[in-house]
Amino acid sequence: AEAALKDMFEADFRIGAAVNPRTIRSQEHLLARHFNSITAENEMKFVSVHPEEETYTFDEADQLVAFARKHGMAVRGHTLVWHNQTSDWLFKDSHDGTVSKAVLLERLRSHTQTVVGRYKNDIYAWDVVNEVIADEGESLLRPSKWLDIAGPDFIAKAFHFAHEADPKALLFYNDYNESNPLKRDKIYTLVKSLLEQGVPIHGIGLQAHWNLFDPSLDDIRAAIEKYASLGLQLQLTELDISVFRFEDKRTDLVKPEPGMLERQAEVYEAVFRLLKEYREVISAVTFWGAADDYTWLDDFPVRDRKNWPFLFDERHQPKPAFDRLAKLA
Ligand code: XIL
C-alpha cells in the first residue's frame, strides 16, 4: 500500500481534512489512514449548533469529535464569528427589530462559552473569526450585521471570549484570497492591530481555495512571509486545488482533460515544497475534504460539475499529485 500522507509530513505539519457526518462513513478508511486532524465542514457553525436562542444542537458535531477520538485525530473548531451560516435570531430583538450592541456581544459571549467550553478537551484550535476582511475597495472590513450592530469591536471581543472559554486553545483569524496582495495587506493590518491591543490571537488561517492557475507561488510565499512576520503560527485551513480557474464556468467535463491531473501534480508539488520551507511557522495543512467523490466545489461557484481538487480520486485511489508528494517527503 502507498505511504500515509500524515507520515510523509510528520516532521513538518499536521495533515487535516474537512469532514461531515456522511464522509466519516463513506471515507472512513481513507481518512483514518492518511489524515491526523479533522475540521467539521458545517457542523460547528453557528446556525448548526445554535439554531434558536434557547436551543443548542450538538449531535452532528459530537459525532465528528467521536470519530476523531476513535482514530486519534486532532480537531480544529470552525467557526464562531462569520457572516454566513449564522442564525437570524442572533441579530434580532424580541420585537423582530435589530438587537443592541450590548445584547449581541453578550449572546456571542454566551455562545462561545457553551460551544468552546463543550469541546475544550478535544478541540486544540478554533477559527474564531472568519472572513471579516473586505475583498475589494478601500475599506478594511466586509459589510455585515456584526459590523452594523457592534462596529469593529466584535472581532477583539470574539477572541477574548474564546480565550476565556478555553485558555489553552489556539485562536485563529481565518480568511480566503489570503495570497492576493491587497487582501493580504488588509489581513496583516487587522491582525497587527489586534496584537497591538493585546488580543489573544495565536495564528492566521489561510483557507487556500486555490486552482491550477491562481494564486502564483510568489504571492503565496509573500503572504506566508508577511503573516509570519507577526510572530504567529500559520495553518492552511481549507486547501483545495481545483482544475478550473475561478472565472471558468464550464460544465461540460465528465472527466479531467488530458494533462489536467499532471498539471495539478506539478502545482501540488510546488506548493508542498514551499510549505516545507516554512515548516517552522506552518503547523497544519487541512484539505477542505479528502477525495474527489465529495467536495463543496462541485456546487460552488458553479453548480453540479466536478472539480477534482484533491490528492485522491473518486474511488479514494492516489492521484498523480499524491505520487509527487510521496517523492517529496
Ligand atoms: C462551505 C461548506 O463546505 C459547504 O458545505 C457550505 O454549503 C458552505 O460553506 N469558507 C469557509 C467554509 O470558511 O466554512 C466554507 O465551507 C467554504 C468557504
From TrEMBL:
Pfam families hit by this protein: Glyco_hydro_10
Superkingdom field: Bacteria
Enzyme Commission designation: 3.2.1.8
Keyword Transit peptide in record: no
GO molecular function, one term: endo-1,4-beta-xylanase activity
Catalyses which reaction(s): Endohydrolysis of (1->4)-beta-D-xylosidic linkages in xylans
Pathway note: Glycan degradation; xylan degradation
Cited PROSITE patterns: GH10_2
Keyword Nucleotide-binding: no
Cited Gene3D superfamilies: Glycosidases (3.20.20.80)
Domain GH10: 1-328
Entry keywords, A to Z: Carbohydrate metabolism, Glycosidase, Hydrolase, Polysaccharide degradation, Xylan degradation
One GO process term, biological-process aspect: xylan catabolic process
Family: Belongs to the glycosyl hydrolase 10 (cellulase F) family.
Protein name according to UniProt: Beta-xylanase
Organism of derivation: Fontibacillus phaseoli
